[in-house]
Amino acid sequence: MKFHDAHNRPMRDAPLPSVPALFPRLLREKSLSSAEIPDEAGCGALWDKYAMPAHIRAHSIRVAGVAESLGRRLQAGGARIDLSLLLAGALLHDLAKAYTIEFGGNHAQLGAAWTRMETGSPRVAQLVFHHVHWPWPLDLGNESMLPCLLVLYADKRVRHDVLVSIEERFQDLMRRYGHTEKTRIFIRSSMEQGLEIERALSARLGVNLDEDTFDSRRLV
């Protein structure tokens, strides 16, 4: 089966990026409630099974690094966040992306279904399902929401495998996918939600996340 990239160019076989060493370290910090959460090897096995291309793997690694950085800072402020859950959701959030580029469909919904089927974890599947859009009012005080919002926000800060502003990320999405007015309306709405999350997280952490590097030196 041949997958294509977002511009419908055939993907060539390429060396696959490895998951940085920080991820096995994080996965050793699992809580007792994390039995169903796949570790780094488990996420990598699913990448292989569903033929995730190298560029989407690189994107997923970078998104996981941003989400992990935010999760640790929120933990330091007293939030209860399962970093293993956060990491697995970030690594698997685009599991179905290449498939839906090739054959159509909603990559968040299909990826969540695959994740639930393969891992048995509704918690990880929820992060995959909601990484494009959060359908309820934002409430950072509700800790059950935080992992979903962190993966969603992190994804909106990474264009391919490069950290960018939300505005830059959505300019790129508009160029690539904004072919109909319906799609353009959704992209603008998604950007506004990302900016709303960014403002809320910035206020909670006391930093300007738009200018944050998310400790990116650790992600190479």
Characterise this structure.
The protein is an all-alpha fold and 220 residues long. It has one domain: Hypothetical protein af1432. The protein has ten helices and two strands; from the N terminus they run H-H-H-H-H-H-H-H-E-E-H-H. Strand 1 and strand 2 form a beta hairpin. The chain is globular, with a radius of gyration of 16 Å.
CATH topology: Hypothetical protein af1432
Largest sheet: 2 strands, antiparallel
Mean pLDDT: 86
Q: How many strand segments?
A: 2
Gyration radius, rounded: 16 Å
Q: Percent range for helical residues?
A: 55-70%
Distance between the termini: 30 Å
How many helices? The count is: 10
Low-confidence stretches: 1-34, 216-220
**CATH class group:** Mainly Alpha
Proportion of beta-strand residues: under 5%
What strand order characterises the main sheet? 1-2
User: Which class best fits the helix and strand makeup?
Assistant: mainly alpha
